[in-house]
Amino acid sequence: MKKIYTLLALVSLFLLSGCNVYNFTGTGTIDAKTFQVNFFQNNADLVAPGIDREFTLALQDLIMNQTNLNLVSTGGDLVYEGEIIDYRITPMTATADQQAAQNRLTIRVNVRFSNKKKESDDFEKTFEFYYDFAGTSLPTGSLLNTAITTIFERITQDIFNESLAKW
Known about the structure:
The chain is α/β, with parallel strands linked by helices. The chain has helices at about 1-20, 50-65, 140-165; strands at about 35, 40, 70, 80-95, 100-115, 125-135. About 35% of the residues lie in helices and about 30% in strands. A hairpin with a 7-residue loop joins β5 and β6 (about 125-135). Residues about 20-25 have low confidence and may be disordered.
């Protein structure tokens, strides 16, 4: 009997997903057909080369992977634009001999979102996340790549949730 209920629940989910009542990203129905992500310039005081391009591509990839919207270079129904406004490394904890035991890389991004189909959804908001690493390490090479990937995954998901999922 339990197997029948499980099977009915799964069939119901797929039927509801197929008729646009629910989708697994949690976005509900999106009136837009296209989206545009303008280049996010790095305006931070401490500049890390290439993170502006990485962030722009990460946001584009996330939206393409979680929706059926088409990416366009101009005239999108949904427009994401902004800039990286902060990139900093700060010591978080210290050892007995006054050295950093743990450091934190923090990136902050200012985002302006415009929805041409529903202007009440427009916003300008700052998103921020961090990555902690050992105080004896420098954020270079694979450590820096891991940190930036982790930070951008969280920030882009937060932007997606704020603009489309409404979480």
